[in-house]
Amino acid sequence: MKRIRILIADDHAVLRAGLRRLIGEQPDMDVVGEAADGEEAVRRTRELRPDVALMDLTMPGLGGLKAIERIRQDCPETRVLVLTMHDVPAYLRSVLAAGGSGYVVKRAADSELLSAIRSVYRGRTVLDPTLAVQVVQSGLGKRPPVGGGDAAPHLSQREQEVLDLVAQGYTNQQIADRLGLSVKTVETYRARLVQKLGLRSRAELLRYAMDTGLFGRREGGPDKAGP
Question: Which residue of 15, 111, 114, 168 has the lowest C-beta tally within 10 Å?
Fold first, then answer.
């Protein structure tokens, strides 16, 4: 029986050790390598050519989403299964846009993860069922082509600009001044971001903007003056 060759990419050594132990107990799986950040995940995938890369999204340096794009471009035969703590539709959509084959939330049972690994290895797409329902209901469930560009294609250019500035700490008034909009219009864009992404706090928006590569696209930081 051919064994599934798996690379584990996560910045937490304890979690990697637990996953290595769990996967190593399976008669049809082998862990062939580990990575602690996105750059290492891409490099190790090129070297080892695993069947499945089991990857976290939030890692130092090159984030998981950018790493997925690079892996899919350089090693199209490797399927990427995301294992993450982010249980919001925005991340699932971005993973699919980057070329990921599966999305499992870390609260899932061990058996669900192992089943997901086997499924993506066989060419199937595996999604967290709760998030998948939300994506379909929002009308944004179609998978864009791999390498299609923007990691968050469901956001307009203006929404991306507002997201970036919110993540950087600008107030609504400062965003309005920089973009030439009214404060009311900025509030409307922020409400759309909450509706589309399911992220409410600035910390959540910052994390998403960083992981999707949107953060810091505009030059400069928050004005020192102002509220």
Answer: 111
Same domain for 42 and 103, yes or no, is yes
Could you tell me the two tokens for 205? Answer: 């928006």
Assigned domain for 170 exists: yes
Gap between the Cα atoms of 162 and 175, Å rounded: 7
pLDDT digits 0-9 by tens, 67-104 = 999 999 999 999 999 998 888 777 887 888 888 999 99
Per-residue model confidence as pLDDT tens digits over 171-188: 888 899 989 999 999 989
Last residue of a domain, one of 82, 102, 137: 137
Q: Say how many domains are in the chain.
A: 2
The burial of 146, by beta-carbon neighbours within 10 Å (0-12 exposed, 13-18 middle, 19 or more buried), is given as middle
pTM beyond 0.90, yes or no: no
Alpha-carbon distances, residue 217 vs 19, 63, 138, 198, 206 (angstroms): 35, 16, 27, 22, 13
Q: What CATH number has the domain bearing residue 182? A: 1.10.10.10
The single residue listed with the structure tokens 């937490």 is: 12
